[in-house]
Amino acid sequence: MKVNLKVNGRSRTVDVEPRKTLLDTLREDLSLVGSHTGCEHGVCGACTILLDGAPVRSCLMFAAQSDGYEITTIEGLAPAAGELGIIQDAFCETHGLQCGYCTPGMILTAHALLEKTDNPSREDIVEAISGNICRCTGYGQIVEAIEFAADRLRKANSPRHIKHANEPVKDPNAKTDAPQEGILEAAESDTPHGGRP
């Protein structure tokens, strides 16, 4: 069956079996391998993605169920190819990862939390990531990474909305969606068609 997915700001059509999970579709059909297969029972959080901004377990969802939703994977958090987002960078700076297997799910969960609150308490952070299992770090540095990212985001002079590299740039005052000369930023000019699909 054909399914239309909006993944990381791009519309993608895939032909899947009705019983194929969203996780397998992302990894096998779209080559988005940042979401990891862990327990396959929705317990570990390694397969966490954002569905309309909320963290969900992609191993528990059929690809057909996600038709019409905005899906964000770890690949979609990077501001541009080869760059790290603020939360990703915070995990690197505080050594909030070791083997890295749980890291994409942790980062996406942290992103959802920081989209809702700009100054989460330690208890808020612990509660948010309580559904994600890490077998390496002991969670201390993960919590520190999220606190560090929250601090950076509060000090940043930029919107919190996820900006996908392929997402169209829209000027709310423009009468047309045609780009105006000089409107593209450097990172956007490096993407095909100036970041437009």
Describe the protein.
This protein is of the alpha+beta class and 197 residues long. It is 29% helix and 12% strand. It has a 5-stranded mixed beta sheet, sandwiched between helices. Strand 1 (2-7) and strand 2 form a beta hairpin. Helix 2 crosses helix 5, helix 3 crosses helix 4 (122-129) and helix 3 (103-116) packs across helix 5. The longest helix is centred in the last third of the chain and has 16 residues, at 140-155.
How would you concisely characterize the structure shown here?
The protein is built from six helices and five strands. The chain is an alpha+beta fold and 197 residues long. Strand 3 (48-51) and strand 4 form a beta hairpin.
Strand-helix topology:
Elements lengths: L1 E6 L2 E6 L6 H8 L18 E4 L2 E4 L12 E3 L13 H8 L9 H14 L5 H8 L10 H16 L30 H4 L8
Parallel strand pairs: 1-5
Antiparallel strand pairs: 1-2, 3-4, 3-5
